[in-house]
């Protein structure tokens, strides 16, 4: 009998030890990552998932655990994932999501629970509800400003616009109007289309009929090539602008000859080799390009994987500071991460130099954008 | 809108309408024979287009592997289910269609893909790869439910649609593709330039519709399908196997979907999930035909294409809203016209 009791006691000790283990593991840093790896915006989420290869195994001797979730391009799934990661996995910081709607949904949860969020989409939030949200991608208005400047230089007065009938298309129309009008640029045609549309003939005919000096296509991914191909087929010869949502090699592959000479605002990471050596972005940019293309093939670099790389750079800069102030897994540690990010660290990364402050949670300035064009099927710095 | 623009819009609308017509006809065919509303019809379009792209890039497309796996699954499921399914003669026959056919097609892909033989080889091969998918999907997902109410069949169809979308993402990736055009020639008719590709779309659709008419009017198989759709029980009583009718209907639907995909591949960017919206517009046309009338469905498809094209010119932000709103007056008219409520046959 006593022998049996002894084993029972042993088992109980083992259970006690086992249950204590997750407690010990909580000293690890837990990073929640939510991207849209499937669904309608998978083209953005998949490269971001790929770029998780840059996540360090440990920071200042503390092990980094990545908890990954796919929100399937659905904001309500993103909300559930974020809640589960916070309550169950005790994450210290959430990266994501790649999709605008899902990123906004996560921002709500992050703000409610006091967990820092590194959004992978340049989301706009009402005043006060972005206390815990830091965006890695460039603010749309920063990119629009660069485009408007170039249009002004070229003497563009009448602008034609065709873009997605979604939030991305709306952001661009809004900022083009507010920044374009002071520069004397008026929008003479505003057309919309859907990502999965098989024909944009009607929109293109209307655009060409309005005789604009230049046309901007407010779309993303490979779907942004369709209007441009159609415009060139209908004999439109003026300059065509695209957004930074189109900066991927697949865009050139689909568009072929029709996208030669397109002007796009982009993060400098896309043309890292062509940057001057003095640029603070060159070193991290080259590190990203070399690492990513080694793993995923030549010319596989793109805007979106760059954002994830940047998010990881921000963690590498902020977490060591936060580790000095508190233990991972505690509310104090999460506040310390937020404070470290807001302390105005200059964080050089692929897309620019991040400099968040308590009032500016976008962090990128003019160093975070360049204008590029397509020349002989390659990206070229303008 | 001047005359020139109207002509261009009409050309665009008719070309798109022709594709919707093919899909609308497939939906009517499948619904009348099996009572399944074929939600995954659009996926056959995307699979067709992307299989061509895969072959052009010199790879063996995921469709070929899917065919092999589904074929084997169907073979095993049938052998386990049917009472007479384990007779050697039937097993041999089934092995031919379920195991040998996909293996042969895979072998053809393996030989053809690296040779870069152009669209005249890749396009028919893509259709040949996608068409048997229809039959396998019917036998795997819908035949066991053949006696279920329409609603159950619809739910199964949605399930198949979701599964196919997910597999499409795995096979073809999230980015869009364009295939090589059949022809780069174009024709000038008065003030209008007609692209060779849209002539291909119109020509193929006309040929397919004519052969469908011949098939249903003048062949025994076609007449058997029609009999099944008029009265399923009656058809079985006179010896028409409902089972085979279903397989034929699904194979034809998958083939027509794949042909549509092959035709639009060169003129637009096709994503793994592009098919759903195209299929939905085919469904609008099919519903306008009451899900029973082929001529009305075809005419309605052309109308949908034209409405869409004019809407994208006049009010592009509301294009989809306008297209899908047209279904409401049609539904109203159809519910007013039919005075009695038909009992669903169980």
Tell me what the structure shows.
The complex is a heterodimer of chains A (382) and B (346). Chain A is of the alpha/beta class and 382 residues long. Chain A folds into two domains: 10-138 and 302-365, Rossmann fold (3-Layer(aba) Sandwich), CATH 3.40.50.2300; 140-266, Response regulator (Rossmann fold). Chain A is built from twelve helices and 15 strands. Chain A has a six-stranded mixed β-sheet with strand order 2-3-1-4-5-6, with helices on both faces. In chain A, strand 14 (370-375) and strand 15 (378-381) form a beta hairpin. The longest helix of chain A is centred in the N-terminal third of the chain and has 24 residues, at 2-25. The termini of chain A are far apart. Chain B is an all-alpha fold. Chain B has one domain. Chain B has helices at 3-34, 41-56, 62-81, 88-112, 119-142, 150-172, 196-218, 220-230, 232-237, 242-264, 275-288, 294-314, 319-325, 327-337, and strands at residues 186-189, 192-195. In chain B, strand 1 (186-189) and strand 2 form a beta hairpin. In chain B, helix 1 (3-34) packs parallel to helix 7 (196-218), helix 2 (41-56) runs antiparallel to helix 5 and helix 12 runs antiparallel to helix 13. Chain B starts with a helix and ends in a 9-residue tail after the last helix. In chain B, 43% of the residues are buried. The model of chain B has no long low-confidence stretch (mean pLDDT 89). Classes of the chains: A alpha/beta (382), B mainly alpha (346). At the A-B interface, helix 2, strand 8 and helix 7 of A face helix 1, helix 11 and helix 12 of B.
